[in-house]
Input
Amino acid sequence: MGEQFAERVVGFDRPTQFHTLLIDAQGALLGIGLDGELGSFEVADDRVVWDSQRGSVTHVVTGRTLGVSNGSVTAMGRSFALSHGPEKLPSEYLQLLEDDGWVCLTCILAPEVVDGLRRVACTDEYTDRPRDTTRGAICQDIAVAQAAAEPVSLWVIREYMGTADICMAHAPGMAILAKDDGKRRVQGWHSDYPYHWGVPAPGQVPAQPGSTRLGVQRNVCVSDFTKVGGATAFKLGSHATNQGPPDEWGTAALHAKADYRAQHGLPYNGPDADIVEAPGGSIILYDARTWHRAGINRTDNRRAAMLQAMVPMYVMPKVDMGAAYKQFAASEVYGQITSRERRELEALLVRRLPGPPLHGALATDRELAALVQDESGRGGY
Output
C-alpha cells in the first residue's frame, strides 16, 4: 500500500468554554424537568446542563438562574458541586452522531480525570512509571471508572442505539501504541464488534438493511491524538455503506498474517481515509460499522487510548467480564466512586438474566470455553 500518510485530517482544538454540570455526593445531576421544576437526574441530557457565571449558574434550556456559594448550589436540601461539563449540549452531540455516524466530545473529561488515565496507561507525563499488569485498568484509579461512567456520552449512545439497556462488550482497557519500527504487524482496516467485518473472527454480523444499530465504539483519547502520533484512522461515513472495508485497503484479517506487511506494506493511508486529531480527554463515538484501524505512531512517545465497545443488552458480549467486575467490586476504587457511577458500571459490566426464576448475573463456563478454544486451535481477535 505504500507509506503516503496522506489521510485527511479532521482536527478539534481544545475548547475555550464549557458548560457546567451540578453533581451531588451520590452522583445525581441537578436539572430542570419538563414541568419546569428542579429535580435530580441519573441521565445527562439537556435538562442537566448549566452555564456558570461569577456567583451564579444559568440553566441553558430554561434560562433559570441559581446562586452559587463556595463552589456549589444548594437545592432540594442538598449540595450540588459545580463540575466540568461538555462543550456542547448533549442533543447537539446526538444530532452529529445521527447525521455523520460519529462525533467528537472534545475535552469532555476533566483535567484530573485525564491525569489519572495517563497514570494508569504510563504515558505522557508518566512514561517512566511501571505499568500494573496484575489488575484491570478500572481497578487501578478512580479516573478509569469515572471515564467509563461519563454520563453525557452514555446518554448519546443510548439514544443512538434506541435503548436504555446497553452494556460493554468488554471491560475498559488501555490501548498503548508505541513507535512503529517499520517491521511489526499493524492493524488493518475493519469494523468493530459485533460486526467484525474485515476481522479474522467467526460470527460476523451479516449486512442488514434497516435502522437497527448493534454497536457504538467509545474511544477515550488519553494522550493527545495526532496524525503523526498514531491517532485512529477512519473512513468517516463508511457505516452507511453497511458493508466491510475492501481487501485492497488491507483488512485486519490480511494484516494478521505474519508476513503480510513485509510483502504488501502498510494498510491504505491515502487521501480517502481520515485522521481525527483531538486533545486528551476527548471521547470519540462512532457507529461500530465504521471502517477504521489503529494509526501508525511515528513519534518516540507512546499514545494511549481507553477503548469501550458498547452494544445493546441483547447482543452477546465479546468477552466474559464476570471476573473483571468481581475484581473491580473488591477494589478500593469501587468505594471511592459515587452511587450513580456504581449503578452505571454494574449495568454496563454485568449481564443479567431477566426475571424469575433465573434472575441474576449471567456468566460463562471458563473451563468449557478453554476446552472449545483448545479443540478448535483458534484464539480470539
